[in-house]
Amino acid sequence: MRVMVTGAAGFIGYHVAQALLARGSSVVGVDDLNSYYDVTLKRARLARLETWPAFSFHQLDIADHQALRTVASDIEVIVHLAAQAGVRYSIDNPFAYAASNLTGHLSVLEVARHAPKFRHLIYASSSSVYGGGSALPYSEAARADRPQSLYAATKRADEMMSVAYAHLYGLRQTGLRFFTVYGPWGRPDMAYFGFAEAIMAGRPIILYDGGRLKRDFTFIDDIIDGVMGVIDHPPEPECAHRLYNIGNNKAELVSDLVSKLEAELGRRAIITVAPRPAADPVETCANVSALTELTGFTPKTTLDQGLPQFVAWYREWYELRGLTA
C-alpha cells in the first residue's frame, strides 16, 4: 500500500509514518518544515524516517496544490495531519490558519479526488470543534457549531468540506477528532512539554484557573493504534464520510499533570496562576465508543505510565543536543 502522510515531520505524522513503514507500506511524506516550533526537532524526526528505504520526502506547502498533486499521482491512502496547530496562536496569526487549515485541506481533497488509485482519506480534526456547552464526555453527535477559537472554526470547516466532497464525489474519508496527544517526540508548544522545559530551567509556569482545567491526555501509542485501525477499516461507499473521537476517555486535572512531571523530573515547579483564556475550554473528555465499535480501539496508557516515557525521551533529546535537562 502506498500512503501519503502530510505533516510527516510533525509529532503525530512522524509516528504514523513510522508505524506504516514498520508494517511494510510505502510512505510519501510531505511537510513544509515551518518555524512554528523548533525545526531541529522536525528534522530529527525526519532523519529517523529517512533510514527506511520505503520512505520518500517532499518539502512543500500543502496549500500549493500543483506541487502537492505532482507527488500524489499513485497514492492509495492519504493520512492528512498537516495543519497550523495551536489555539492561542490563532489569536495573533489568523491568516496562517486560513492558508494551512482551509486552503490546505481543500488542496488535499482535490488531490484525493483526482488520484486514480485513491481509496481512503484519513484527516485530523480536533476536540476543539466541540466549543462551549456540549455535554461531557463529548460524543460525535454533540453540537459542534459554537467554536471558541479560530483554530476550532477552521477544523470544523474542514469537516464540512469533507462532508461536501463525500456527497459530491463519493470521496471516502474518516475524520479523527484528536484529544490532547502527548508522548516522546512531542510538540514543544503543548502544555506538558512547555511545563517540563520550564521546570528544568527554573522558570515559572502559568496554571490557568489554578490548574483546575481538565484535559483528556492521550498517549501517542494509543493514538497510533486508533489511526492504524481506521486505515484498516475504510468506510463503505454508501456512507463515505465518518467522524470519530480519538482520546483516552478520562479527563484529568492539569494540576495533577504538573505534580506528576515534578515527580518524574525531580524538581518543583514555580507556579503563576492566571485566569483561563477565553479560547480554552474548562474540560475535555472523549466518548470513544464509536471508534471502539469500529476498530476495537481501547486506550491502554495512563498518565502515570505515559509521562515517564515522555520524560525519558525528553532527557535523551536534550543530552543529544549537548544541553542540560
Spell out the key features of this protein.
globular, Rossmann fold, seven-stranded parallel beta sheet, 13 strands, 11 helices, 41% helix
3D architecture notes:
With 325 residues, the chain is an alpha/beta fold. It has a single domain (2-182, 218-249, 284-300), classed as Rossmann fold. It is built from eleven helices and 13 strands. A seven-stranded parallel β-sheet has the order 3-2-1-4-5-6-11, with helices on both faces. It has a two-stranded parallel sheet with strand order 7-10. The mean pLDDT is 95.
Spatial strand sequence of the major β-sheet: 3-2-1-4-5-6-11
CA radius of gyration = 19 Å
CATH superfamily: NAD(P)-binding Rossmann-like Domain
The best one-word shape is: globular
CATH architecture: 3-Layer(aba) Sandwich
The count of strands amounts to 13
Largest sheet: number of strands, sense, barrel closure: 7 strands, parallel
Question: How many individual helices?
Answer: 11
**Named CATH topology:** Rossmann fold
Overall domain count: 1
Strand content: 15-25%
